[in-house]
Amino acid sequence: MSRCWLLNLDAEKELADPDWRRTERDRDKVVARIPTVQDLLEEGDRLVPLDEDERFEANGSQGMVWCPTSGALQRLQQVGARLPEVPTQEVLRRVNHRRFSFELGVTLPDSVWVNRIPDLQSAVARAPLQQHWLLKRGFGFSGNGNRKVRAGSSGNSVMRWAERHLETEGILVEPLVARLADFVLHGQVSREGETRLGVPCVQVCTAEGRWTQTRIAQADDISDEEAALFLKAGQQAADALHQAGYFGPFGIDGFRWRDLEQGEQFHPLVEINARYTMGWATGMAARS
Fold first, then answer.
1. Which one of 3, 83, 147, 225 counts the least CB within 10 Å of its CB?
2. How far is residue 214's CA from residue 205's CA, in Å, rounded to a whole number?
């Protein structure tokens, strides 16, 4: 069956604000990133233009989407594609919010979730594992939506940024630790809760957390113990997604970090991305 893909790689912006509309600059950024996810496409697949003014005839082919937001589904319907079976928008928004993965309890030491400025100020006043805290808004991708703040500081610029997101999204406060290596585990969960996990992969990221490459983890990249923790976290995430009403592709991020005693620790569940993710086809194909 022929397929047509809508690669809305900026889906988190719509999840954060249902009234958000993609600007020309937003579109250009997404188009520039599309070559990095070409491995999702099979022979004969076509790309649906993001711009609603650009004509495209799907001719009844099966619609595929990076993340099934309402805007993406409307675009597929507009071009005459067959809509995929997807979870509700309420479920999609809930499971992609960082609080969903935070509440699973697999967190860095001293991490807290806040929704008010006084709570945020109290949180960053504490002494963390390192000298800085990392603030993460509810929705974000590729390092977007994060701010670094020194322990004990309540800089005006950071607080102004926080005020814009606290009530609508909330903020995760976690220690900014020394990351040694980044990993990703991909998966697929069915409507009935059946789970298929890929193999652990290495994620090569910039210092700002932006993805550049995914490759299958080798024995010298990740230990057996770390891989076991990662797969356990992947199953935990899949179970939570199913219980929340989600079905479809997902990925979880993890990383190895160095503590103050120079020991190495493994954090197996940084966050859940309930959608396709960078390198998804690589990680899942290796398990086939």
1. 225
2. 9
Cβ neighbors of 206 (< 8 A, separation 6 or more) are: 143, 212
What dihedral do alpha carbons 97, 126, 229, 178 form, nearest 10°?
A: 100
Strand 132-137, strand 171-175: pairing = antiparallel
Domain ranges of the chain: 3-86, 112-175, 178-285
Alpha carbon 204 to chain centroid distance? 15
For the domain covering 178-285, report its CATH number.
3.30.470.20
What is the identity of the amino acid at 272? I
Residues with Cβ within 8 Å of 180's Cβ and at least 6 positions away in sequence, in order, are 255, 256, 257, 258, 264
Dist CA 234 CA 92 (whole Å): 18
Measured CA to CA in angstroms, residue 171 lies from 125, 229, 271 at distances of 15, 26, 13
Contact 172, 99 (CB under 8 A): yes
pLDDT digits (tens, 9 = 90+) for 212-268: 889 999 999 999 999 999 999 999 999 999 999 999 999 999 999 998 777 899 999
The pTM of the full predicted model, rounded to 2 decimals, is 0.92
